[in-house]
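Entry 14. Structure prediction run on the chain below.
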Amino acid sequence: MGDIRARVLKICDLTVDEDALVKPEGSEVSGTKKAIPCWAMLIEHPEGLILFDTGERDCEDGSSGGERLVEQLALCGAAPDQVRLVVLSHLHHDHAGNIHLFPNADVVVQSRELEVARAEVAEGKRGSIYRKEDISGEIRWRTIDGECDILPGIRLIPAPGHTEGLQAMLLGLERPMLVTSDACYTARNFGPPPRLPGVYQDAAKTLCSLGRLRDIAERSGAYVMFGHDAEQFSQMSLAPAFYA
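Output returned:
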């Protein structure tokens, strides 16, 4: 479109089992730990500032993810109270950990994602990756159902499997950008051939979503940004640089 800019904001690194990113096959099991990026994306749009995901609230090194996010926004000449919309791919704590910083923004999420997150929090489900503090309080939820263009050049695409209500995003830049979030952790998951992560909610839905995202990327010629690909992230332009 030429009038949209996207800036990638690094929040922190997270340490995970490498086998959690790509499900081992046969003798592939490594059992090693890997540092992966946790990030957000600031989108400058003619109709206002949009933030895609808000990152981790409490970083592993003891620092505040919220403070880091504010610092990253400042690099771009922006402040939390200037953000018009927050779009959340899903509500796991490393993607929705700092919603409280944006009281002036509508928070866009798939209705099924919010429903499941609230149910797990209310139940106190063991091992849940949803946190009460991330989805409680005065949040201006704007729930959607299915694929939609929230603004010209910003399309949200359901991609369940990792969670029931996860959504990816297609940005109408000069070269489109398809942001998969945790529908696809890394390039190895994307394939070909597609590979399941080591952790997922529904294998069939995960593979179906991967197939759909691959088809969208092929048809649109989009650059695909994966959810937690350390190798890809190390080569990306980070804020205050931008993609347009």
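The mean pLDDT is 96.
Filed with the rest of this week's runs.
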